[in-house]
Design brief:
The protein has about 110 residues and is mostly helical. About 60% of the residues lie in helices and about 0% in strands. The protein folds into 2 domains: about 55 residues; about 45 residues, no CATH class.
Length: about 110
Amino acid sequence: MSTNQSNWIVETGQAWKLYVAVAGFTGALLCFTFGIFSLVTGGERFLALVSCGLFLGCATFLWFTAVLRCSHCANKLVWTMVSTRPHSSWVVDLAALESCPACGGRLDRVA
Ligand SMILES: [Zn+2]
Protein backbone atom coordinates (compact mmCIF):
# COMPACT_ATOMS: atom_id res chain seq x y z
CA MET A 1 0.00 0.00 0.00
CA SER A 2 2.63 2.47 1.03
CA THR A 3 5.86 2.79 -0.89
CA ASN A 4 7.41 4.99 1.75
CA GLN A 5 11.19 4.84 1.65
CA SER A 6 11.88 4.95 5.35
CA ASN A 7 15.28 3.77 6.49
CA TRP A 8 16.09 0.69 8.55
CA ILE A 9 16.58 2.66 11.77
CA VAL A 10 12.98 3.87 11.62
CA GLU A 11 11.78 0.52 10.23
CA THR A 12 13.11 -1.41 13.22
CA GLY A 13 11.76 1.10 15.74
CA GLN A 14 15.14 2.48 16.72
CA ALA A 15 14.57 6.07 15.62
CA TRP A 16 14.41 7.17 19.29
CA LYS A 17 18.07 6.19 19.68
CA LEU A 18 18.89 8.59 16.87
CA TYR A 19 16.92 11.37 18.60
CA VAL A 20 18.63 10.73 21.96
CA ALA A 21 22.02 10.84 20.23
CA VAL A 22 21.14 14.10 18.45
CA ALA A 23 19.95 15.56 21.78
CA GLY A 24 23.18 14.47 23.47
CA PHE A 25 25.38 15.99 20.76
CA THR A 26 23.30 19.18 20.78
CA GLY A 27 23.78 19.40 24.55
CA ALA A 28 27.53 18.92 24.13
CA LEU A 29 27.62 21.63 21.48
CA LEU A 30 25.67 23.99 23.78
CA CYS A 31 28.22 23.38 26.54
CA PHE A 32 31.05 24.32 24.17
CA THR A 33 29.16 27.40 22.99
CA PHE A 34 28.47 28.58 26.55
CA GLY A 35 32.07 27.76 27.44
CA ILE A 36 33.35 30.05 24.67
CA PHE A 37 30.88 32.75 25.70
CA SER A 38 32.08 32.47 29.29
CA LEU A 39 35.60 33.35 28.08
CA VAL A 40 34.24 36.78 27.14
CA THR A 41 32.90 37.29 30.63
CA GLY A 42 36.08 36.28 32.50
CA GLY A 43 36.23 32.58 31.68
CA GLU A 44 35.48 31.34 35.19
CA ARG A 45 33.31 28.47 34.00
CA PHE A 46 35.17 27.79 30.75
CA LEU A 47 36.90 24.60 31.91
CA ALA A 48 33.82 23.22 33.64
CA LEU A 49 31.59 23.81 30.62
CA VAL A 50 34.06 22.47 28.07
CA SER A 51 34.82 19.33 30.08
CA CYS A 52 31.09 18.87 30.61
CA GLY A 53 30.52 19.12 26.84
CA LEU A 54 33.42 16.78 26.15
CA PHE A 55 32.06 14.20 28.59
CA LEU A 56 28.53 14.49 27.23
CA GLY A 57 29.76 14.17 23.63
CA CYS A 58 31.93 11.12 24.40
CA ALA A 59 29.23 9.44 26.51
CA THR A 60 26.60 10.00 23.80
CA PHE A 61 28.89 8.63 21.10
CA LEU A 62 29.86 5.55 23.15
CA TRP A 63 26.22 4.86 24.00
CA PHE A 64 25.10 5.34 20.40
CA THR A 65 27.84 2.98 19.23
CA ALA A 66 26.81 0.37 21.77
CA VAL A 67 23.03 0.41 21.14
CA LEU A 68 22.81 0.56 17.35
CA ARG A 69 23.72 -2.97 16.28
CA CYS A 70 22.93 -5.44 13.55
CA SER A 71 20.08 -7.68 14.72
CA HIS A 72 21.74 -10.68 13.04
CA CYS A 73 25.39 -10.57 14.10
CA ALA A 74 25.41 -7.74 16.72
CA ASN A 75 27.99 -5.81 14.68
CA LYS A 76 28.53 -2.30 16.04
CA LEU A 77 27.25 -0.53 12.94
CA VAL A 78 28.05 3.02 14.09
CA TRP A 79 31.65 2.08 14.77
CA THR A 80 31.95 0.20 11.47
CA MET A 81 30.65 3.20 9.55
CA VAL A 82 32.76 5.74 11.44
CA SER A 83 35.94 3.76 10.83
CA THR A 84 35.30 2.97 7.15
CA ARG A 85 33.53 6.07 5.77
CA PRO A 86 34.59 9.73 5.47
CA HIS A 87 33.70 11.85 8.52
CA SER A 88 31.35 13.98 6.46
CA SER A 89 29.07 11.22 5.22
CA TRP A 90 29.04 8.32 7.69
CA VAL A 91 25.73 9.35 9.28
CA VAL A 92 24.03 9.51 5.87
CA ASP A 93 25.60 6.20 4.80
CA LEU A 94 24.58 4.61 8.10
CA ALA A 95 20.94 5.63 7.68
CA ALA A 96 20.95 4.51 4.04
CA LEU A 97 22.28 1.01 4.81
CA GLU A 98 20.13 -1.83 3.54
CA SER A 99 22.19 -4.74 4.73
CA CYS A 100 24.80 -5.23 7.40
CA PRO A 101 28.35 -4.53 6.13
CA ALA A 102 29.66 -7.40 8.27
CA CYS A 103 27.22 -10.30 7.74
CA GLY A 104 25.07 -9.06 4.85
CA GLY A 105 21.79 -9.59 6.76
CA ARG A 106 18.85 -7.33 5.94
CA LEU A 107 18.78 -4.55 8.51
CA ASP A 108 15.06 -3.83 8.22
CA ARG A 109 14.21 -7.35 9.32
CA VAL A 110 14.67 -8.48 12.86
CA ALA A 111 16.62 -11.73 13.00
ZN1 LIG B 1 25.30 -8.23 10.76
